[in-house]
Write a structure and sequence with these properties.
The complex is a heterodimer of chains A (468) and B (382). Chain A is built from 21 helices and eight strands. Chain A has 468 residues and is an alpha/beta fold. Chain B has three domains: 2-114, Roll (DNA Polymerase III, Chain A, domain 2), CATH 3.10.150.10; 127-252, DNA Polymerase III, subunit A, domain 2 (DNA Polymerase III, Chain A, domain 2), CATH 3.10.150.10; 255-377, Roll (DNA Polymerase III, Chain A, domain 2). The radius of gyration of chain B is 25 Å and the shape is elongated. The chains are: A alpha/beta (468), B alpha+beta (382).
Chain lengths: 468, 382
């Protein structure tokens, strides 16, 4: 039994014999610091607890300790400063004083008006809601191969509103940093040119505001509000798909901003071409500026991200654990952060050291869930919905391109994701020969890096397989 | 327990002790005072487990004992008794009886042995400071202390120990005040003490309490340190508090060594100008502009509010160094706080550029600046 376990056992016994209020007051943040030749040294947070434990509860503590370890003869208390404090301090930027921003105190508006009705068309900048979260900046964005171009484009845009790339379209999977980059543009502009009017909004909210304004017959004000922005950032634009009226209004706002050389930045989880039911005129406008993608980060980048998060939180974690987390959670940065938070919270809560062994234990469950096992039927489902074919189409004979391509992709995925033998693949898809399956696999394998459309398809399919 | 003491004595210490009583507490006993007899005196203690205060008062003890009684009730009774009364206090361990000629009170109490034990310092105190000087220093520092708990180290006053002086500093990261208190004698072990303890951060609440306990008659404040706790003794009242863990920012490095712009104002003039400017700035971004013009030896204080209007005050400057024109933007509160803290009727304003820290110092009647107190305010970058 180590000191920690011993103390936990002692606390368990004492908790039963004294009142809850007393227990919490006196035993919070205590621990055994040393156990030497029957003398136990207990670390306590302050002088009051020291006096109380030494003079009042010493008998309880000693009795509990002796029942667990008969060798213990004596206890003493010392005041131990909390450990976590020092590590945070060494990392934290120690700036003695800095200039107050906005004069230090900002009066909060008492009544929050709906954002687009609060403005009038005057030339003086009136403070308005940008919806930006100041946590997201270029400084804390980790640059790597997968996002270097997107970041460079965003930075260029933030330095040269409306002139560098307009519109800027960023796409990439969930949790890879699109929102971070988008918000960074906004925050950078706020920093350099606070007089600029900036609006960050996701397309969902945009739709809601539009619907509200139609309901209240304030559609003109809505348009007017958006048309006077210097920088309009629309996040997750794929949600506009299928909303024709919203698309229509957005189209007009887009046009008027674009003509005035006002910057527009858009993000989506797929390229404009792949957004179903997006009006052609919008699609062509999105494609008219700069399109850039963010792909999954590689292992080194994930480790770098974890390292920066760890130091941000003032925690320390050994490299082996970081590597373990980064290796096992590869799809999504948000999940990566979630896993890290889980490790930190667990270690702090249970006061256990953050090492590889504990990290593995803590994340065991999470990683297991993450590797959601996929079945052959799942692949069938995804392929049939994605390509709009039926299962029978895939199985029956016929070499029309609309059918043969999905079939080949299906074979490739079966092989790649489930390691199904080629002969089984052939049988599954209508009793075909194993060489057919082999051919399909090789063809897709060869083309997947050179044909960007195919690459896109595979990425989307994989995402749907694992995340839906 | 049975004893006799005067209302005046007990009233004075109860006033100090009442402030320590915490409002919400998990332990009900913490809303009590502990009354006990010790070495022929009455000892009254109160604590909220952050800070503890122990006061001794002279009394004629007839029977030893102790009891804990609700602070509010006993306080209310004692404060309302006529001065110069003599009180008979008696307790049977369950309740407390207080009698004088015409008033009687019986308070139900709790067993004194459940009251937290307040650590007491029994050895010789290391330092003793002139009480009035310390009180003045604290009054010029405490308004700078940060109230934001997110940076715990800034919620206290930092004390730097030197061979012949202590340097006290407080900042909320927008402005900073520093006071230097020199001292001549200290205990023999001070050199060893210096090796182990270079600095210390004391919580704002503790120092507020110290300031209140120092009366105009107080002579000295004794201070000792042990195991991350600080002990004070003033006029027989002992205060014990934890020190704040953490590393105080290295503030010395941001204080400019030299200043190109030096301006001497009449304190009243500049206070008035900033207060007027404040009326407009407080509705807007909380910004006022100070523009110095060495040619005309004037300083112009302006503030503008888009909605309400604007104002301009032209200030006479008694002395202005030839440093070229300079315009600085400040939060008026941060400048005014610093000026208000100064005694004397003239103020020395020091600055270099519009984006580096500006300083405010006291001037004595002969025009020498007082090097003991320094106030630093950060201008707002434009």
């Amino acid at each position: 039994m180590n000191n920690e376990e011993l103390w936990k056992a002692v606390l368990g016994q004492i908790e039963l014999s004294i009142s809850k209020a007393n227990f919490v007051t006196w035993f919070k943040n205590t621990s055994i610091l040393e156990n030497q030749n029957g003398l136990i040294t207990i670390g306590v947070p302050n002088g009051f607890a020291k006096e109380w434990l030494e003079n009042k509860y010493n008998i309880y503590i000693l009795k509990a300790l002796k029942s667990l370890d008969p060798n213990i003869q004596e206890i003493r208390c010392i005041i131990a400063p909390e450990k976590s404090v020092s590590t945070i301090d060494s990392i934290k930027n120690v700036d003695a004083i800095k200039p107050p921003e906005n004069g230090g105190f900002v009066r909060k508006k008492l009544i929050e008006k709906p954002s687009f009705t609060s403005s009038t068309a005057t030339s003086t900048p009136i403070p308005h809601e940008t919806n930006l979260n100041s946590r997201y900046t270029f400084e804390n964005f980790i640059v790597a191969e997968n996002n270097e171009l997107a970041r460079a484009a965003c930075y260029a845009v933030s330095q040269n509103l409306g002139l560098a790339y307009n519109p800027l379209f960023i796409y990439g999977g969930v949790g890879l940093g699109k929102t971070h980059l988008l918000q960074s543009i906004g925050n950078e502009v706020v920093k350099n040119a606070p007089e600029k009017r900036i609006k960050y909004i996701n397309s969902e909210r945009f739709t809601t505001e539009l619907v509200d304004s139609i309901k209240n017959q304030k559609i003109d004000k809505f348009k007017e509000y958006y048309q006077q922005m210097d920088l309009l950032i629309i996040d997750d634009v794929q949600f506009l798909s299928g909303r024709e009226k919203t698309q229509n209004e957005f189209f007009h706002i887009f046009n008027s901003l674009y003509q005035l050389d006002k910057q527009i930045v858009i993000s989506s989880d797929r390229p404009p071409k792949a957004i179903p039911t997006l009006e052609d005129r919008l699609r062509s406008r999105f494609e008219g500026g700069m399109i850039t993608d963010i792909s999954r980060p590689n292992l080194e980048t994930r480790i770098a991200i974890l390292e920066s998060k760890v130091s941000e939180k003032g925690f320390s974690l050994d490299p082996a654990s970081l590597k373990y987390i980064a290796e096992n959670i590869s799809q999504n940065i948000r999940e990566l952060e979630g896993a890290l938070n889980r490790v930190i919270a667990f270690c702090e809560f249970h006061k256990i050291p953050a090492n590889l062994e504990n990290t593995q234990k803590i994340l065991d469950q999470l990683i297991e869930n993450n590797k959601k096992s996929i079945q052959i039927d799942d692949i069938f489902n995804v392929i049939t919905t994605f390509y709009d074919v039926t299962k029978e189409d895939l199985i029956k004979k016929g070499r029309k391109k609309e059918i043969s391509h999905p079939r080949q992709v299906m074979m490739y995925i079966l092989r790649n994701e489930l390691q199904t033998p080629f002969s089984t693949i052939g049988e599954l898809l209508g009793g075909r020969d194993h060489t057919t399956a082999l051919h399909a696999f090789e063809k897709i394998e060869k083309n997947k890096d050179t044909h960007s459309r195919l690459k896109e398809e595979l990425a989307t399919l994989r995402e749907r397989l694992y995340y839906n | 327990m049975k004893l006799i003491c005067t209302q005046e004595n007990i009233d004075r210490v109860v006033t100090y002790l009442e402030r320590v009583i915490g409002r919400q507490s998990t332990l009900p006993i913490l809303s009590n005072f502990l009354l006990e007899t010790e070495k022929g005196r009455l000892k009254i203690s109160a604590t909220n487990l952050e800070i503890g205060v122990v006061a001794y008062i002279g009394a004629k003890i007839e029977k030893e004992g102790k009891i804990a009684v609700p602070a509010k009730i006993i306080g209310n009774f004692i404060h309302n008794l006529p001065k110069s009364d003599v009180l008979e206090i008696e307790s049977d361990g369950k309740s407390l009886l207080i009698n004088n000629v015409s008033h009687k009170m019986k308070i139900k109490g709790l067993d004194g042995k459940d009251f937290p034990i307040i650590p007491q310092y029994k050895k010789d105190y290391f330092f003793s400071f002139p009480a009035q000087e310390l009180k003045n220093a604290l009054s010029r520092l405490l308004f700078c202390v940060s109230l934001n708990e997110s940076r715990l180290e800034l919620t206290g006053v930092h004390i730097f120990f030197y061979q012949d002086a202590i340097h006290l500093a407080a900042t909320d990261s927008f402005r900073l005040a520093e006071e230097i208190i020199p001292f001549t004698d200290h205990a023999a072990g001070y050199d060893d003490f210096l090796k182990e303890n270079a600095s210390l951060i004391l919580p704002n609440t503790t120092l507020q309490e110290i300031m209140r306990i120092i009366t105009p008659e107080s002579d000295e404040v004794k201070i000792a340190l042990e195991e991350n706790q600080v002990f004070f003794e003033i006029d027989g009242i002992q205060i014990i508090s934890r020190a704040i863990n953490g590393k105080y920012p290295d503030y010395k490095q941001i204080i400019p060594q030299t200043f190109t712009l030096q301006a001497v104002f009449k304190k009243e003039d500049i206070q008035r100008a900033i207060k007027i400017a404040n009326t407009f700035s407080s509705y807007n971004a909380n910004e006022i502009t100070l523009s110095f013009d060495p040619e005309s030896k004037k300083c112009v204080v302006t503030s503008v509010s888009q909605e309400l209007g604007e104002n301009e005050t032209i200030l006479d400057v008694e002395y202005l160094s030839d440093a070229g024109k300079l315009s600085m933007v400040f939060n008026p509160r941060y400048v005014l706080d610093g000026i208000n803290a100064l005694s004397g009727d003239r103020v020395l304003f020091l600055a270099n550029t519009a984006s580096t820290p500006a300083a405010i110092r006291m001037l004595d009647t002969e025009g020498h600046s007082d090097e003991k107190y320094l106030y630093i305010a950060m201008p707002i970058r434009k």
